[in-house]
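Q: Could you fold this chain for me?
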Amino acid sequence: MPSKPAPIKKSPVKQAAKKAPEPAPVEAPPAEAPPVHAAPAEALPAEAPPAEAAPVEAAANEEAAPAPEGEAAPAAEGGSPAEAAVVEEPPKASTLPLPAVPTSAPRDVSVEDVTDSSLTIKWNSPETIGASGLDGYTIEYCKDGTADWVVAQEELTTANLFCIKNLTAGDLLHVRVVAVNRSGRSEPGTLAQSVPIREIGERPKIRLPRILKSCCVKQVGEQINLVIPVLGKPKPVVSWLKDGQPVVPRVNIRNSDKDSIIFIRQAQREDSGVYEITVKVDSFEDKATFTLQIVERPGSPADVKLVDTWGFNAALEWTPPKDDGNTEITGYTIQKADRKTGEWFLVLEHCHRLTTTVTDLIMGNAYSFRVFAENQVGISEMSTVTKGVATIQKTGIVYTPPEYPERDYSEAPRFTTPLINHAATVGYTTKLLCSVRGSPMPKIEWLKNQMVIGNDAKFRQNSTQGICSLEIRKPGCFDGGVYTCRAKNEQGEAVVSCKLEVKQIILSEADKEKGK
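A: Sure. Below is the predicted structure, expressed as structure tokens.
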């Protein structure tokens, strides 16, 4: 297809006058001179000196810029344009205009979509735009094997996405994007490779299994067989990288229309790394990465020292192993052995520190200690044994019982439950109750009307664990009165009293007749 003719470049002065924004008015000269508008400094061509370009720019601005509101346009009839343009201006400081520089090239030009008659591309804005700004982009393409570049659009586009239409199926096209501003065209941003114009049946897609979305951990010697489904029509091209380099030959790769399989017969530590799979159909591609970590048991701790021995205790410290098995150390296991028997016994496991104290050692014995390292695979095959021996010395033991001061628990009698006034019926046994405390146990005496009740058979006295009782058997009318309980010990005495009233039952004549 023949290329369109290149546009004719306008003169720098006219182009600057056309693109220059509306200028601000300069300080007016004497009243008889019409106002003149000076063009901005950035509109000057880079190669023209400021002194020579000023009259021409002023003339261009007189033709292009409309008269400000409220002022009459200067009459062009009867005078030459040169006379109207050349006007005395107040002196200005001489400043050189900044050179106008094109933008840098558009970045990351890539294919967004392709059909049998169109091609959609996208790109990122240039890194450097400059003071001249950015007017837009022009997209150009040419067929493979030719040098005729065709402009794909009539006007500049400001978007970062463009669809080239009305293409011929089967063509192989090269595409480039050029940024344009008032200073000219930038360097082109070009597609990395040519694009065939044809319908894509299915875009490439990698469906990474869930187990590979986090770090995949396998043990040394384990067989690895990872199946990764892929999509794409026509048959996609699959490639593999490990840490940015091609995979080693002993890592077997098998690709099919539906999946890609990575197979390792016996995994080794050097198989650990970041694997990247790329699926490509023409200019479309999809990438996925996953991390494979091959682990094994750790080595033994680097050094185990017996720091101190005292009493029945021994203090140990050690350093982490040089080989962690390609995974973090999760703990340590400590064992002890009596030098007499030589048998090892577990002291502590899953210890997360690098120091520990072994306690409850037996007096007169000598002990050796060893430490194993642990990780998620298991405990280390070898251990590190202390060079020194912890000897628990025999010492005489004299037990001195603690001395406790004797406490005086003596207490004067005190009634905690007093006697309560009571009413009894003639002929019916009644009981008086109270409670007392004191140390030593107080002696209890009962009194009736201030007279001590002796061993009268009519009364039964009892005192058990501080509970004092007086039982009056079948009281008569003369058994009423004031009863007192008195408690005595070495610390003192206490007294409590109550009043007992004995009532006579009065029968009616009818009840008496019945009783007869």
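A (continued): Confidence is low (pLDDT under 50) at residues 1-87.
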